[in-house]
Design goal:
about 20% helix, about 350 residues, alpha+beta, 6 helices, globular
Length: about 350
Protein backbone atom coordinates (compact mmCIF):
# COMPACT_ATOMS: atom_id res chain seq x y z
CA UNK A 1 0.00 0.00 0.00
CA UNK A 2 1.56 3.30 -1.03
CA UNK A 3 1.51 6.49 0.98
CA UNK A 4 0.70 9.97 -0.20
CA UNK A 5 2.31 13.38 0.16
CA UNK A 6 2.01 15.05 3.56
CA UNK A 7 2.47 18.84 3.42
CA UNK A 8 3.52 19.21 7.07
CA UNK A 9 7.25 18.63 7.76
CA UNK A 10 8.21 16.55 10.78
CA UNK A 11 11.35 15.54 12.68
CA UNK A 12 11.18 12.79 15.31
CA UNK A 13 14.04 11.38 17.40
CA UNK A 14 14.17 7.82 18.66
CA UNK A 15 16.39 5.39 20.50
CA UNK A 16 16.06 1.82 19.28
CA UNK A 17 16.48 -1.43 21.19
CA UNK A 18 15.71 -5.05 20.49
CA UNK A 19 14.46 -7.62 22.99
CA UNK A 20 15.07 -11.18 21.93
CA UNK A 21 15.33 -10.01 18.33
CA UNK A 22 12.09 -7.99 18.34
CA UNK A 23 12.62 -4.27 17.58
CA UNK A 24 11.43 -1.50 19.88
CA UNK A 25 11.59 2.14 18.77
CA UNK A 26 11.34 4.59 21.71
CA UNK A 27 10.30 8.15 20.80
CA UNK A 28 12.64 10.56 22.59
CA UNK A 29 12.05 13.89 20.79
CA UNK A 30 9.79 15.78 18.42
CA UNK A 31 6.55 14.90 20.20
CA UNK A 32 4.91 16.92 22.97
CA UNK A 33 3.23 15.46 26.05
CA UNK A 34 0.33 13.11 25.41
CA UNK A 35 -2.92 14.45 26.82
CA UNK A 36 -5.02 12.47 29.29
CA UNK A 37 -5.23 11.60 32.97
CA UNK A 38 -4.33 7.93 32.49
CA UNK A 39 -2.29 5.85 30.09
CA UNK A 40 -5.51 4.51 28.58
CA UNK A 41 -6.66 8.08 27.88
CA UNK A 42 -3.24 8.95 26.43
CA UNK A 43 -3.46 5.89 24.21
CA UNK A 44 -6.74 7.26 22.83
CA UNK A 45 -5.11 10.69 22.37
CA UNK A 46 -2.22 9.14 20.43
CA UNK A 47 -4.66 7.23 18.23
CA UNK A 48 -6.66 10.37 17.47
CA UNK A 49 -3.87 12.96 17.18
CA UNK A 50 -0.44 11.33 16.69
CA UNK A 51 -1.08 8.57 14.19
CA UNK A 52 0.98 10.23 11.46
CA UNK A 53 3.98 9.91 13.80
CA UNK A 54 3.25 6.22 14.34
CA UNK A 55 3.03 5.73 10.57
CA UNK A 56 6.25 7.68 10.01
CA UNK A 57 8.16 5.41 12.42
CA UNK A 58 6.51 2.08 11.63
CA UNK A 59 5.87 2.23 7.89
CA UNK A 60 8.44 1.82 5.16
CA UNK A 61 10.87 3.26 4.18
CA UNK A 62 11.78 4.24 7.79
CA UNK A 63 10.34 1.11 9.36
CA UNK A 64 8.77 -2.13 8.20
CA UNK A 65 5.64 -4.22 8.72
CA UNK A 66 7.10 -5.87 11.85
CA UNK A 67 8.25 -2.67 13.60
CA UNK A 68 7.18 -1.89 17.17
CA UNK A 69 7.60 1.25 19.25
CA UNK A 70 6.26 3.53 21.94
CA UNK A 71 5.57 7.00 23.24
CA UNK A 72 6.94 7.52 26.76
CA UNK A 73 4.52 9.28 29.09
CA UNK A 74 4.16 10.19 32.73
CA UNK A 75 2.73 7.47 34.98
CA UNK A 76 -0.88 7.60 36.14
CA UNK A 77 0.21 8.71 39.64
CA UNK A 78 3.17 8.83 42.00
CA UNK A 79 3.02 5.06 42.54
CA UNK A 80 4.92 4.37 39.30
CA UNK A 81 8.03 5.66 37.54
CA UNK A 82 7.02 5.60 33.86
CA UNK A 83 4.03 5.45 31.57
CA UNK A 84 4.02 4.11 28.03
CA UNK A 85 1.78 3.93 24.95
CA UNK A 86 2.77 1.09 22.62
CA UNK A 87 2.29 1.09 18.84
CA UNK A 88 2.72 -1.32 15.91
CA UNK A 89 1.70 -1.79 12.28
CA UNK A 90 -2.03 -1.71 12.99
CA UNK A 91 -2.35 0.78 15.84
CA UNK A 92 -1.94 0.78 19.62
CA UNK A 93 -1.68 -2.33 21.79
CA UNK A 94 -2.83 -2.81 25.38
CA UNK A 95 0.37 -4.54 26.49
CA UNK A 96 3.86 -5.34 25.28
CA UNK A 97 6.22 -7.42 27.38
CA UNK A 98 9.25 -7.17 25.13
CA UNK A 99 8.65 -3.41 24.94
CA UNK A 100 8.43 -3.12 28.73
CA UNK A 101 11.78 -4.90 29.06
CA UNK A 102 13.35 -2.56 26.47
CA UNK A 103 11.75 0.56 27.97
CA UNK A 104 13.05 -0.13 31.48
CA UNK A 105 16.48 -0.95 30.07
CA UNK A 106 16.52 2.35 28.15
CA UNK A 107 15.25 4.35 31.14
CA UNK A 108 18.11 3.07 33.29
CA UNK A 109 20.90 3.17 30.71
CA UNK A 110 19.91 6.65 29.51
CA UNK A 111 19.76 8.07 33.03
CA UNK A 112 15.99 8.71 32.87
CA UNK A 113 15.81 6.70 36.10
CA UNK A 114 18.59 7.38 38.61
CA UNK A 115 20.97 4.61 39.66
CA UNK A 116 21.50 2.48 41.67
CA UNK A 117 18.53 0.42 40.54
CA UNK A 118 19.77 -3.17 40.86
CA UNK A 119 16.93 -4.98 42.62
CA UNK A 120 14.71 -1.91 43.18
CA UNK A 121 11.12 -2.15 42.00
CA UNK A 122 10.27 0.07 39.04
CA UNK A 123 6.61 0.78 38.27
CA UNK A 124 5.49 1.08 34.66
CA UNK A 125 1.93 2.07 33.76
CA UNK A 126 0.82 0.39 30.52
CA UNK A 127 -2.70 0.44 29.04
CA UNK A 128 -3.55 -2.92 30.65
CA UNK A 129 -2.44 -1.81 34.13
CA UNK A 130 0.60 -1.29 36.33
CA UNK A 131 3.62 -3.56 35.94
CA UNK A 132 6.19 -4.05 38.69
CA UNK A 133 9.65 -4.42 37.16
CA UNK A 134 13.05 -5.31 38.60
CA UNK A 135 16.33 -4.80 36.72
CA UNK A 136 19.41 -6.91 37.18
CA UNK A 137 22.54 -4.93 36.36
CA UNK A 138 25.79 -6.01 34.74
CA UNK A 139 28.80 -6.03 37.07
CA UNK A 140 29.79 -2.60 35.71
CA UNK A 141 26.65 -1.16 37.32
CA UNK A 142 25.90 0.80 34.11
CA UNK A 143 24.33 -1.63 31.69
CA UNK A 144 21.23 -3.69 32.32
CA UNK A 145 21.64 -7.47 32.19
CA UNK A 146 17.91 -8.31 32.30
CA UNK A 147 14.52 -7.01 33.35
CA UNK A 148 11.83 -9.02 35.09
CA UNK A 149 8.26 -7.74 35.20
CA UNK A 150 5.28 -8.86 37.27
CA UNK A 151 2.34 -8.70 34.91
CA UNK A 152 -1.32 -7.95 35.44
CA UNK A 153 -3.28 -11.13 36.33
CA UNK A 154 -3.53 -13.65 33.51
CA UNK A 155 -6.51 -15.92 32.95
CA UNK A 156 -8.12 -18.38 30.54
CA UNK A 157 -11.40 -17.47 28.84
CA UNK A 158 -12.04 -20.42 26.49
CA UNK A 159 -10.66 -23.83 25.53
CA UNK A 160 -10.85 -25.79 22.27
CA UNK A 161 -12.80 -23.18 20.33
CA UNK A 162 -13.34 -24.58 16.80
CA UNK A 163 -12.62 -22.13 13.97
CA UNK A 164 -13.12 -23.02 10.30
CA UNK A 165 -10.10 -22.14 8.16
CA UNK A 166 -8.68 -22.92 4.74
CA UNK A 167 -6.68 -25.70 6.45
CA UNK A 168 -9.79 -27.16 8.06
CA UNK A 169 -11.16 -26.74 11.56
CA UNK A 170 -8.61 -25.57 14.12
CA UNK A 171 -9.08 -25.73 17.90
CA UNK A 172 -7.95 -22.63 19.78
CA UNK A 173 -7.41 -21.89 23.46
CA UNK A 174 -7.91 -18.22 24.40
CA UNK A 175 -6.23 -16.54 27.35
CA UNK A 176 -5.26 -13.09 28.58
CA UNK A 177 -1.82 -11.88 29.60
CA UNK A 178 -2.25 -8.12 29.19
CA UNK A 179 -3.78 -8.72 25.75
CA UNK A 180 -5.96 -11.55 24.45
CA UNK A 181 -4.22 -14.38 22.60
CA UNK A 182 -5.30 -17.58 20.93
CA UNK A 183 -2.97 -20.54 21.41
CA UNK A 184 -2.63 -23.29 18.82
CA UNK A 185 -0.40 -26.37 19.05
CA UNK A 186 1.47 -26.00 15.78
CA UNK A 187 1.92 -29.77 15.54
CA UNK A 188 -1.84 -30.14 15.10
CA UNK A 189 -1.41 -28.26 11.83
CA UNK A 190 1.37 -30.49 10.56
CA UNK A 191 3.74 -27.52 10.87
CA UNK A 192 6.50 -26.40 13.21
CA UNK A 193 7.78 -23.15 14.67
CA UNK A 194 10.32 -22.31 11.99
CA UNK A 195 10.92 -19.64 9.34
CA UNK A 196 9.76 -22.09 6.67
CA UNK A 197 6.29 -22.23 8.28
CA UNK A 198 5.85 -18.47 8.59
CA UNK A 199 3.86 -17.82 5.38
CA UNK A 200 1.30 -20.46 6.37
CA UNK A 201 1.14 -19.26 10.00
CA UNK A 202 0.69 -15.61 9.01
CA UNK A 203 -2.13 -16.57 6.65
CA UNK A 204 -3.77 -18.63 9.41
CA UNK A 205 -3.56 -15.79 11.91
CA UNK A 206 -5.46 -13.60 9.49
CA UNK A 207 -8.23 -16.22 9.44
CA UNK A 208 -8.22 -17.21 13.11
CA UNK A 209 -8.23 -13.73 14.60
CA UNK A 210 -11.46 -12.47 12.99
CA UNK A 211 -13.00 -15.94 13.35
CA UNK A 212 -12.45 -15.92 17.11
CA UNK A 213 -13.75 -12.37 17.44
CA UNK A 214 -16.94 -13.51 15.69
CA UNK A 215 -17.24 -16.63 17.84
CA UNK A 216 -16.45 -15.17 21.27
CA UNK A 217 -17.09 -11.99 23.18
CA UNK A 218 -13.46 -11.23 23.96
CA UNK A 219 -13.49 -8.44 26.53
CA UNK A 220 -11.80 -7.88 29.87
CA UNK A 221 -14.40 -8.11 32.67
CA UNK A 222 -13.00 -5.10 34.55
CA UNK A 223 -11.88 -2.85 31.69
CA UNK A 224 -14.12 -2.92 28.59
CA UNK A 225 -11.59 -0.98 26.49
CA UNK A 226 -9.37 -4.07 26.60
CA UNK A 227 -11.03 -6.28 24.02
CA UNK A 228 -10.53 -8.39 20.93
CA UNK A 229 -8.00 -11.03 19.90
CA UNK A 230 -4.59 -9.40 19.59
CA UNK A 231 -2.51 -12.30 18.39
CA UNK A 232 -2.22 -16.04 17.79
CA UNK A 233 0.51 -18.00 19.56
CA UNK A 234 1.66 -21.04 17.58
CA UNK A 235 3.55 -23.23 20.07
CA UNK A 236 5.28 -26.56 20.45
CA UNK A 237 6.92 -28.49 23.27
CA UNK A 238 10.72 -28.73 23.27
CA UNK A 239 13.10 -30.95 25.24
CA UNK A 240 14.59 -29.32 28.32
CA UNK A 241 18.38 -29.42 28.33
CA UNK A 242 20.36 -30.91 31.20
CA UNK A 243 21.78 -27.44 31.90
CA UNK A 244 18.29 -25.93 32.15
CA UNK A 245 17.11 -28.78 34.36
CA UNK A 246 20.03 -28.06 36.67
CA UNK A 247 18.89 -24.42 36.79
CA UNK A 248 15.37 -25.48 37.81
CA UNK A 249 13.60 -25.11 34.46
CA UNK A 250 10.70 -27.58 34.45
CA UNK A 251 9.29 -27.00 30.96
CA UNK A 252 10.55 -25.71 27.62
CA UNK A 253 8.34 -24.54 24.77
CA UNK A 254 8.95 -22.69 21.52
CA UNK A 255 6.48 -20.29 19.95
CA UNK A 256 5.96 -17.71 17.28
CA UNK A 257 3.31 -15.10 17.98
CA UNK A 258 1.62 -13.49 14.98
CA UNK A 259 -0.27 -10.38 16.05
CA UNK A 260 -1.96 -7.22 14.75
CA UNK A 261 -2.06 -7.38 10.93
CA UNK A 262 0.15 -10.41 10.32
CA UNK A 263 3.03 -8.98 12.38
CA UNK A 264 5.56 -11.59 13.52
CA UNK A 265 7.12 -11.35 16.98
CA UNK A 266 10.78 -12.31 16.80
CA UNK A 267 10.96 -12.52 20.61
CA UNK A 268 9.15 -15.16 22.71
CA UNK A 269 6.45 -12.47 23.31
CA UNK A 270 6.23 -11.14 26.86
CA UNK A 271 2.48 -10.69 27.32
CA UNK A 272 1.99 -13.84 25.24
CA UNK A 273 4.25 -15.70 27.67
CA UNK A 274 1.91 -14.66 30.49
CA UNK A 275 -1.08 -15.86 28.46
CA UNK A 276 0.65 -19.20 27.92
CA UNK A 277 1.48 -19.47 31.63
CA UNK A 278 -2.22 -19.11 32.48
CA UNK A 279 -3.02 -22.10 30.25
CA UNK A 280 -0.12 -24.16 31.57
CA UNK A 281 -1.23 -23.50 35.14
CA UNK A 282 -4.79 -24.66 34.39
CA UNK A 283 -3.37 -27.81 32.78
CA UNK A 284 -1.22 -28.49 35.86
CA UNK A 285 2.02 -28.29 33.91
CA UNK A 286 3.36 -25.39 36.00
CA UNK A 287 2.73 -24.61 39.65
CA UNK A 288 3.33 -21.46 41.69
CA UNK A 289 6.95 -22.34 42.50
CA UNK A 290 9.04 -19.33 41.45
CA UNK A 291 12.09 -21.59 41.39
CA UNK A 292 10.61 -23.65 38.54
CA UNK A 293 10.22 -21.51 35.41
CA UNK A 294 9.11 -22.06 31.86
CA UNK A 295 11.89 -21.51 29.34
CA UNK A 296 10.08 -19.89 26.42
CA UNK A 297 11.95 -19.90 23.12
CA UNK A 298 11.28 -17.79 20.05
CA UNK A 299 11.50 -18.48 16.34
CA UNK A 300 15.03 -16.96 16.37
CA UNK A 301 16.06 -19.04 19.43
CA UNK A 302 16.03 -16.16 21.93
CA UNK A 303 14.54 -16.97 25.34
CA UNK A 304 12.39 -15.54 28.12
CA UNK A 305 11.89 -17.15 31.50
CA UNK A 306 8.36 -17.15 32.87
CA UNK A 307 6.92 -18.09 36.25
CA UNK A 308 3.52 -18.48 37.86
CA UNK A 309 4.08 -16.85 41.26
CA UNK A 310 0.59 -16.72 42.73
CA UNK A 311 -3.15 -16.96 42.32
CA UNK A 312 -5.66 -14.19 41.73
CA UNK A 313 -9.25 -13.56 40.63
CA UNK A 314 -10.44 -11.33 37.76
CA UNK A 315 -14.16 -10.68 37.38
CA UNK A 316 -14.95 -13.79 39.39
CA UNK A 317 -12.71 -15.86 37.12
CA UNK A 318 -9.63 -17.74 38.47
CA UNK A 319 -6.40 -16.05 37.41
CA UNK A 320 -2.68 -16.31 38.03
CA UNK A 321 0.06 -13.80 38.77
CA UNK A 322 3.01 -14.22 36.41
CA UNK A 323 6.51 -12.87 35.99
CA UNK A 324 8.55 -12.75 32.79
CA UNK A 325 12.26 -12.00 32.39
CA UNK A 326 14.34 -11.12 29.34
CA UNK A 327 17.13 -8.90 28.05
CA UNK A 328 17.18 -5.92 25.70
CA UNK A 329 20.07 -4.34 23.78
CA UNK A 330 20.48 -0.89 22.31
CA UNK A 331 20.80 -0.78 18.53
CA UNK A 332 21.12 2.94 17.83
CA UNK A 333 19.74 6.45 17.79
CA UNK A 334 17.81 8.01 14.93
CA UNK A 335 16.44 11.34 13.78
CA UNK A 336 13.69 10.71 11.25
CA UNK A 337 12.47 13.42 8.92
CA UNK A 338 9.45 13.94 6.73
CA UNK A 339 10.18 16.07 3.69
CA UNK A 340 6.87 17.68 2.61
CA UNK A 341 7.96 17.22 -1.02
CA UNK A 342 8.14 13.44 -0.57
CA UNK A 343 5.29 11.90 -2.61
CA UNK A 344 5.27 8.84 -0.29
CA UNK A 345 4.50 10.97 2.75
CA UNK A 346 4.67 9.08 6.04
CA UNK A 347 5.25 5.87 4.13
CA UNK A 348 3.68 2.59 3.11
CA UNK A 349 3.54 -1.05 4.17
CA UNK A 350 4.06 -4.13 2.01
CA UNK A 351 2.43 -7.09 3.79
Amino acid sequence: MTGRADPVPMTVSTTDYHTGGEPFRIVTGGVGPLEGRTVLERRAFARDHLDRIRRLLVDEPRGHADMYGCFVTEPDDDGADLGVVFFHNEGYSTACGHGTIALVTWAIESGRLPRPLDGREIGVDVPSGRLRCVARMDPDGVRVASVRFRNVPAFVIARDVPIATSRGEILCDVSYGGAFYASVDVRSLGLEVSPASLPALIALQRELRPGLDRELEVVHPDEPELRGIYGVIFWQDEPTSAEDLADGVVLTQRNVTVFADGEVDRSPCGSGTSARLALLAVDGRLGTDARAPLRHLSIVDSAFLGWVVGDSVVGGRPAVVTEVEGSAYRTGEHEFELDPRDPLGTGFLLR
